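Hi there, hope your week has been kind to you so far. Please have a think about how the structure follows from the sequence. I've dropped the whole record in just underneath, so have a look:

_____
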Amino acid sequence: MLWTTLFFALLISAGAAVYVLWPLLSRTAPDVLIEDDRLTELISRKDGVLIAIKDLEFDRQVGKLSEEDYERFNARLRQQAIGYLQQIDKLAPQSTHLDEALEAEIARLRKTRTAPVAVNGKATPVAVPVMAMPAGGGAARFCTNCGHALAAEHKFCANCGTAA
C-alpha cells in the first residue's frame, strides 16, 4: 500500500514537472503577439488630447481661463484630436467599418426580439417587434435585464428575477 501511494505521488510529481518545464525545453518559439506600435501610440495621444480638452472645458467653467484663451487652446486641441483620428483611420480603416456594423446589429436587436411561434406544428423562433401590443391592449412591458415579456401584474421578471 505504501509503495503504490509513493508510486502515484511520484507519477503526479513527474507529470507536474513536465507540464511546468515543457515550455522551457521545447524547441519551438512561442507565438509572439505583435502590436502595431504606431497605432497604439496614436490612440494614447488621442486619448491624452481628449482628456486635455475636458480639462480645458472644466478650467473655463470654474473661471481659471478667459474666454479668448479657452477659444485659442480649444481650437488647437481639437485640431490635434482630428489629426490623430484621421491618422488612426488611415492605419486601421477596417475598425470603422466594424464599429458601424456592430452599431447596426445592436440597433436591429433592440428593435426586435425572438419569440417561439408555431409553424406547421413546430415551435420556430421568429423576430417580433419589441413594442408589440399585448393581448389586453395595454402597453407592452419587457424586462430591462433579459428582455423577457412581463405581465401587467408582475413586479419581478419570471425569467431572471430583476425588479420590473
Remarks:
- Residues 37-91 form one domain.
- The first helix runs from residue 2 to 25.
